[in-house]
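EI: anyone free to look at a 493-residue chain?
SC: sure, send it
EI:
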Amino acid sequence: MNRRLRRGDGTIFIGRASAPETRPRRRTDGAAASARRPPLSRLLAVFAALGLLAGTGAAARAQSETGSPGISQIRDAEIEQDLRQWEMPVWKAAGLDPDAMHIILIADDQINSFVAGGQNIFVYTGLLTRSDNANQVIGVMAHETGHVYGGDLARLSDAIKKAQIAQVIGMIAGAAAGVATHSGSPAVAGMAAGQSYAERNFLSFSRGQEGAADKAATIFLNDTGQSPRGLLQFMQKLQGDENALGIHEVPYLMTHPLTQDRIDALQHDVSTSKFADAREPATYKEQHSRMIAKLVGFLAPTSDVFEKYPETDNSVAARYARAIAYHRMSNEAEAMKLVDGLIAGAPDDPFFQELKGQFLFEAGHVAESVAPYQRANQLLPRNALIETEMAQTMVEAGDGRYDRQALDALTDSADKDSDNPLTWRLMATIYGREGKENEAILYTAEQAFAEGRYKEAKGQAHYVAGRFPFGSPGALRAQDLEQDAENAIKAER
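SC: here you go
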């Protein structure tokens, strides 16, 4: 059994409620969403200008191999919730609507993060696993929040219009490839491909925004009584990596200020902050250790898991990581022994219950996996990913008694996270079992839209719209979906 789950579109999901690459978000009440997130293929065209690092080698390699940008996304209820909890005070201090903010996890060992497509913060797993504490992660995300607060994406669009878009994208890709290969030649080639004057003006604009985002981050952190030291420490960590790799930055070829320049500015901000020595909450320390353990447990080679978390380590994080590693090795007896021990120590922890349900489900004990997921849902109600995971166990258990409960959970999940195709597929399955063909077709169209198959979604929505009574909720919803699909098709041209 494949323990490292991977969708055909490259998405990796730690839990089983997979989600597609980021798509335009839709409401499920038939009304068009007020804010839409463009596909990642469009977001990545400008992300390098708004990230923590100038180097984006993975994106450059994927583009060279596939002809279009390609990244892998991770979904996990626990990690997403913890990151949102950590950053919520910062978003509020910045005057941003937390409900409009999205954190997207990228499965990549690089230390990187960026903002793209509005209020979307992309965080690489390498950044998380290389962080020493929650305060460092909070500092980095506060920097990205600074971009959102400053409206940098809107101004970036204006900056791009002043240069040829192809030149700008080529320059960013060239710089990224240069960092990936530890060579300046690809960046030089990228610069030579266009008009260097326009490109340098664009880079100067970007460097200014990076400095402003650093400053905004320290202000937000001070306003929330948190130390800005974590962001400084992380920049120093980056500088250490640069020195070890022999990277020599050329200021006007970079989309960011020199690392030392940023460090100098941050050192001043830390020295003048009355919260410089503020400690993070004890709960954050535990959440951070579990986050790292979970990522290592699921994504690292199992030999690395046991090296980092040996059997002599009886901490919660170590047992968490080893349980996952044993599960990936199909040693279900040891995996279940560890997860049951974790539950015994914290019976009201929803994520231990979720993990047990996942282990049982993936080991083929589908009916037995329902109860742990139900318990997780009771302990953490209305979590979209857990609701979909629970519903999947109920649907695949083949017990019709669960259908109503599963449908209620899926409806709530879709209201909060319309990007998950599994949610729509399960809803279509339930309605199909009940003989409600129109609803089954409608939700199959929703699944196609969530997976980026816009032409298919448009055709199915158009077909089923005429099968519902005129003016009914089903007809309106199908018409709304058809229009959304048409808009997405046009946006791809």
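EI: The chain has three domains: 37-282, 300-347, 349-493.
SC: 👍
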